[in-house]
Amino acid sequence: MFAGGVGITGLHSHAAVQLMVVTEGQVELQDLYGQRLVVRAALIPTRAVHAVHGPGATAVFVYCDPDALLGRTLQDCFTGKQRDRLGAWAAAAGPAQRAAEAPTQDRVGQESLRALAGGPRPVRVGHPALRRAIDRTQSLLGGPVRLQDLAAAVDLSPSRLGHLFAEELGLSFPVYLRWARLRRAMELVREGATLTEAAHRAGFADSSHLTRVFHEMFGLAPSVVLRSIRWNT
């Protein structure tokens, strides 16, 4: 979770599911098709291209891993072409708008998630081989990670495992791997590592590589949010 100034970003997309709840000021979102909408809250699915315009505004941003139960639950709010449509993002987050009135930023995040995912929903059980592949990926992030090697370790063909990543997480394997490395790097920075140290330990070539991937997925420089983001898994 990150709480603070919204600012202005270019078009970008997340590997995480993002919930944004505006706490002060005005925020306008833009989707891939050029549609613009002023929102009080928005739920943005994985890989949905968008830009944010909110100079002077503040908001709470919650990023949920797509392989976690909460992330999967929020992903289920969208079907088909809705994933790319700005109106669908605002509509999906409608129940979370009242959370902006909560007294603290943590409460805003907690109450907005409760409003969206707190009701009874069927629990999707992920493929066990995909779960093992994800766990193995996490243990190998400091070095090279190849789909072929993961597939062999979980007794699937590379094509079948790649299909499971896309089907269950909404991400291709390369995108998921970049996200996993990025998250590991952010955790290391929060623990006190420099950007260069975090980049190498998370499997990036260097800090410039980490910065490029961060900007691709957040539309912002790492220095803006790295040390203040907290994860909701």
The low-pLDDT segments are: 119-123
User: What's the domain count?
Assistant: 2
Question: How much of the residues is beta strand, in percent?
Answer: 15-25%
Question: How many beta-strand segments?
Answer: 6
The assigned CATH architecture of the largest domain is Sandwich
Pfam family, one: HTH_18
Organism: Streptomyces parvus
Protein name: Helix-turn-helix transcriptional regulator
InterPro entries: AraC_XylS_family_regulators, Homeodomain-like_sf, HTH_AraC, RmlC_Cupin_sf
What does the model show?
The protein is an alpha+beta fold. The chain folds into 2 domains: 2-117, Jelly Rolls (Sandwich), CATH 2.60.120.10; 128-220, Homeodomain-like (Arc Repressor Mutant, subunit A), CATH 1.10.10.60. 42% of the residues lie in helices and 18% in strands. The protein contains 10 helices and 6 strands. The chain has helices at 69-75, 86-92, 105-117, 128-139, 147-153, 158-169, 173-190, 195-201, 207-218, 222-225, and strands at residues 2-8, 17-24, 27-31, 36-39, 41-44, 50-64. Strands 1, 2, 3, 4, 5 and 6 form a 6-stranded antiparallel sheet that branches. α8 crosses α9 (207-218). The longest helix has 18 residues, at 173-190.
Secondary structure topology:
Blueprint: E1 2-8, E2 17-24, E3 27-31, E4 36-39, E5 41-44, E6 50-64, H1 69-75, H2 86-92, H3 105-117, H4 128-139, H5 147-153, H6 158-169, H7 173-190, H8 195-201, H9 207-218, H10 222-225
Antiparallel strand pairs: 1-6, 2-5, 2-6, 3-4, 3-6
Helix pairs in contact: 5-6, 7-8, 7-9, 8-9
